[in-house]
Amino acid sequence: MNAITMVIGSICILMIAYRLYGTFMAVKVLKLDDSKKTPAHELEDGKDYVPTNRWVTFGHHFAAIAAAGPLVGPILAAQFGYLPGLLWLLIGAVIGGAVHDAVVLFASMRQRGESLAEVAKKELGPVAGFCTGLAMLFIITITMAGLSMVVLHALEHNPWGTFAVGITIPIAMGVGLYHRKTGNLKGATIVGFILIMVAVFCGPYIQDTVLGEWLTLDVKTLSIILPIYAFFAAALPVWLLLAPRDYLSSFMKIGVFVALIAGVFLVNPTLQMPALTDFIHGGGPVLNGPVWPFISITIACGAISGFHAFVGSGTTPKMLDRWSDIKPVGFGAMLVECVVGIMALVAATALHPGDYFAINSTPEVFKTLGMETVNLSKLSQEIGLDLEGRTGGAVTLAVGMTYIFTDISWFDKLASFFFQFVIMFEALFILTAIDSGTRVARYLIQDFGGAFYKPLKRVDWLPGNIFASALACLVWGYLLFSGDIGSVWALFGVSNQLMASIGLIIGATVILKVADKRRYMLTCLIPLAYLYVTVNYAGYWMIKNVYLNTAASGYNVLNAVLSIIMLVLGIVIMITAVRNWIKTWNSPALQLNRKTA
């Protein structure tokens, strides 16, 4: 298959889905009404609750949800061939991810922008609320530390990347102050974007200067700096740092993938990876499990991701200016992220299979595959870096994007520059999720702590904000600095999709109460049925074949125990929800409302 066929077909499907299914969700299912005040207006405090332009909110939301998932997940899943990843991205995003993000955002806004744990408590009861909160806190801690580890290796001894990423902080604060004072979004956007691009292209020239020496940092130093930055991102008013930084970063993110799309149209590379590989039954060098359930666990962001529930019930519901903004921000941003995932899949599958597996497996394992590299030596020479055995997906994306552009005659002179640019771009992608995720962790800590000390629950209480932000950063910062998170990182795939299942459970509960027709629950129940079975089977498979298998390299009893705890939390929430659905379904008041609607 040619890449251009995949890209055009996918974009057309997503545009039609947004126009038809997105409108159906907004008008018929959620019944969005702009005559009602949003939490941002009702509780406006100039810090967390701030009515914000829909495109600024879109930029923040997209930047926050589009972390490493839509970049790395499709690349790792390319082991199975291009077809499983493409189908899951399109079907998962339209039927599952976009619906999940929209209903979670709506459910949170109905409860004054509170966290999903608080929403679960009010919609399903205290037991479900506690289990949801515990699961969310567990997942967000692992996510922040795990994503930060990816950034560490991208910025380690990389003054160019460190400068380009770090300079976005004062630029964003300047844009936030200017926009706050003048209300001139267009002017702030133009100036901010130009400054960021200047910073990116100035990066190579500071490497051999005194400033470059100062910014040449090791892993341990970066492990301290990142939590400190996240603390300020979580504690400062949202309009000063977090929102403008994510908004400006989204231009760069979307711009890079627009450039990649343009490259696909210019070059029209052939997808060299077959539709299906021999590893669909398991035993692959990148992912050991079979295509199902691991295609849906490996590709989360880009299709459906529980991490989005943190943003959709954290910062975003406190910023929406109108209820109708849920459609472009919640439903639309998910579909744009799907495009990001598809372009990452194109970048990976455009590589020759031998080159792909040489990058994504250790040299020892690659020798056992009976494959030969084709273009890897040439690419390594042009980029100036040995590319073999650089597992994890990030390098594959940069190499794949670089490879597509090498068919342009004059591009070989820019290959090294472009490769480093993409590596930095990936780091920026991840950092925008870290600052938003830490702010969400702050909200969760305040929710839990508020049960023991009521003032802590108030988001406008400065000491509480500082304490919760510091505690959140301390916890995941410790895991980052010590490296202990590596022992539980394998849990993230399962726990993340379990979180998405919880989001769909709560969404179905809310729809049953507000929609005119009860069958509209199927918008959540259909993706929930697939995802819940998938995540539980994946958890069972990992426990049986990896965590409790003494012959497996991933043998770890602690991981097995933690997996069991997470799956049990999901079962408790599901049982509670089903009982609630039956009670609500048979409620005379609900039936009367249906007749009068």
From TrEMBL:
GO cellular-component term (any): plasma membrane
Q: Start and end of every CstA N-terminal domain?
A: 2-535
One family from Pfam that matches here is CstA
Q: Which residues does UniProt assign to the signal peptide?
A: none
Bilayer topology reads:
Multi-pass membrane protein
Where does it live in the cell?
Cell membrane
Q: What residues form the membrane-spanning segments?
A: 6-27, 62-80, 86-107, 127-154, 160-178, 185-206, 221-242, 254-271, 291-311, 331-351, 414-434, 461-481, 487-512, 524-543, 555-578
Protein name from the UniProt record: Carbon starvation protein CstA
Q: Look up and give the organism this protein is from.
A: Priestia koreensis
